[in-house]
């Protein structure tokens, strides 16, 4: 967890620096470049929030470690920690953290490679949705970018007016065959 906290702190400092850069770009009327930088910053914020969620899941696992009986192997973790284990195992490849991958490998040794395949495949719907959406963040919607840019400009005392920043946010369209609110990831 220490490496994750260090990474989170570095990303938080990076976000602060990026906000200043974006404000400078807005004051120079370099709006397109500011939008690109803003999207990068939003992605960084998603990672910071994901690390917070992962830390909570790791704490739940740590609190439930006494439930694991290494002498009586089981194909799945105890129910009290199953959701957190699934979430951490799924998130490891996306989290950009060596310790998370080590934990994923340890879970694979304890519960088998089939368990890992289940979490990556059909068991994925049991993974924390909020974490999935944070770690698989794609390009931000134009309205979200405009609102972020307007907030940065206002906080920095820079004049910036984009009509899109004042339009109501609507949910993105749901692709055919998908359920609203469910993240569908591309197959590996």
UniProtKB/TrEMBL annotation:
Q: Which GO terms describe its biological process?
A: protein transport
Q: Where is this region: Disordered?
A: 163-188
Pfam families hit by this protein:
Ist1 (PF03398)
Q: Where is the composition biased (Low complexity)?
A: 179-188
**Entry superkingdom:** Eukaryota
Similarity section: Belongs to the IST1 family.
The molecule here is called: Vacuolar protein sorting-associated protein Ist1
Phylogenetic lineage? Eukaryota, Metamonada, Carpediemonas-like organisms, Kipferlia
């Amino acid at each position: 967890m220490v490496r994750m906290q260090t990474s989170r702190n570095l990303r938080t400092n990076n976000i602060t620096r990026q906000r200043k850069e974006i404000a400078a770009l807005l004051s120079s009327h370099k709006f397109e470049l500011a939008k690109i930088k803003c999207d990068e910053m939003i992605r960084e914020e998603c990672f910071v929030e994901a690390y917070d969620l992962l830390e909570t899941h790791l704490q739940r696992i740590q609190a439930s470690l006494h439930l694991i009986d290494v002498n009586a192997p089981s194909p799945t973790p105890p129910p009290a920690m199953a959701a957190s284990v699934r979430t951490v195992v799924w998130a490891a490849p996306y989290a950009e953290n060596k310790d998370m991958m080590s934990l994923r490998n340890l879970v694979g040794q304890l519960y088998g490679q089939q368990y890992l395949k289940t979490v990556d495949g059909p068991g994925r719907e049991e993974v924390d949705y909020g974490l999935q959406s944070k770690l698989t963040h794609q390009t931000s919607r134009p309205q979200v970018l405009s609102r972020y840019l307007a907030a940065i400009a206002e906080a920095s005392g820079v004049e910036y007016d984009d009509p899109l920043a004042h339009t109501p946010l609507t949910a993105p369209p749901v692709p055919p065959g998908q359920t609203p609110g469910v993240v569908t990831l591309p197959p590996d």
